[in-house]
Amino acid sequence: MVQTDLKAVSKRFFMFYYPVFLIIILTNMTLMHTIGFNPWGVSLSVKIIYYNIHMIILFFAFIMVRLFIRLQVTWIWVLYILFALLASELVNFLLGGVFLQTVMNYPKIDSFNTTILIFLRSCNAITFLLLFFIAEKSYLFEKRFQTEQIKWIANEKKMVENQLKLLQAQIEPHFLFNTLTAVGTSYETNIEKGRNMLDNFIRYLRTSLDQTRKDETTVKHEIELITAYLDIFCIRLGKRLRYKIDIPEEIEHLKIPSMLIQPMVENAIKHGIEPKIDGGEISIQAEKKKTYFTGLSQIQARV
């Protein structure tokens, strides 16, 4: 988390910092081109370049100090800030003293060095603090927005889960009462039919009780539950109900919300099969596209 925060703030800092840096350099180059070559302009360009290098080095020093303070490592950040200052001065010496004057033969300008140094240090310090403030505020705003989105998604998920549990609570008593009534009636008229219905009912209860304790289940377990559920209705409705389940083995291990399919199957029976004298067929199909499970593609009653 800390590394992600530092990376994000650093990215935003340079998104703001580099355009300003380029504008300063381009403006100075334009003035030099318009006015002509002069030692003052050359020296000013050089100072701007290596003071911006200072700012880059000190920026990472500032970031690391914040990290060490957050981790409560006091002596390390002191050493780090000293190292950053030494590295900054080394860049200043190598670029301004050795490279530009020895290699590039740029003249050394001393008449205004003190004034320019004070001016550039002040400008760079103010620019650095301002841009870092903007970058960090931008990051904090985006982070707060993402946090609100995560909370909203979590609330939506919780609401759907509560609605599903409420629906399950409404289904179970109704289904249990009707099934027990059908079992009792079957034992009076057809013992074999009643025994088969009771066996399927026990199988359904064993599967459903295990799933109701969990928020998620596998496709395989959900289909086992639906199979027991449909077998009970097949005994109750006889030839009026037929069903077909087409679930590829490659998606049987995937996770779905517990008891997700049963409400849809119950609606298919209630509104598609029972009103018809000849009944119909319940078809449950699922498919997998590319590398992810797309869900149940069809649950319908064919009448």
Automatic annotation (TrEMBL):
Keyword Transferase set for record: yes
Domain Signal transduction histidine kinase internal region span(s) in chain numbering: 163-241
InterPro entries reported for this sequence: Bact_2-comp_sensor_kinase, HATPase_C_sf, Sig_transdc_His_kin_internal
GO CC terms, sorted: membrane
Keywords assigned by UniProt, alphabetized: Kinase, Membrane, Transferase, Transmembrane, Transmembrane helix
Residue stretches spanning the membrane: 16-36, 48-69, 76-100, 112-135
UniProt GO MF annotations: phosphorelay sensor kinase activity
Pfam families: His_kinase
Protein name, per record: Signal transduction histidine kinase LytS
